[in-house]
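Quick question, first post here. What does this chain look like in 3D?
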Amino acid sequence: MLHLTAMRVGSLLARRATTALTSSSARMATHGHGTGELSETVDMSQPTYWESVIVPLPDIPYKNELTAADKSLKQKEKGPWSQLTKEEKIALYRLMFCRTYPEMRRPTGEWKTVMGGILFFLGFTGLVVWWQRAYVYPTPPRSFDEEWQAKQVKRMLDMRIGPIEGLSSKWDYEKGRWK
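> Answer (accepted):
Ran it through. Tokens below.
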């Protein structure tokens, strides 16, 4: 009996989860606050216009909808190109492509944003380090003081610690100075 009840509960939970997932995906697809309008989806199986220096030829032309002037220019394109003016050739190029190679290779101001971000985080890190030194870390022990270290060296020399290869081997006891 218990096994049968567990199966029923599992089935109920599975149905509820399926319903919740399908209704949440429908809610995510709505535009606004439950207005029922579905958002526009993009069919990624269709070719799209994307140009870069690395991939110079986009899948589709830049302008899909042609005006009457554009259509007459396309008809003129089928004839000899020696009859086209420079402006018409440029207009034909602009029908197919949005930017030229020099326009694509033109430097952008992105380096300023990157450098600003780097400098911001370096400054923030510096503030965190300063704050930790001022408020988090304890005061250094007295053994870090130069006076203490000088006394410690004198004590080690008086006790003649390391007379063969250590600190005392480098001290001249007769003259009272380092060898």
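The chain is about 55% helix and 0% strand.
The radius of gyration is 39 Å.
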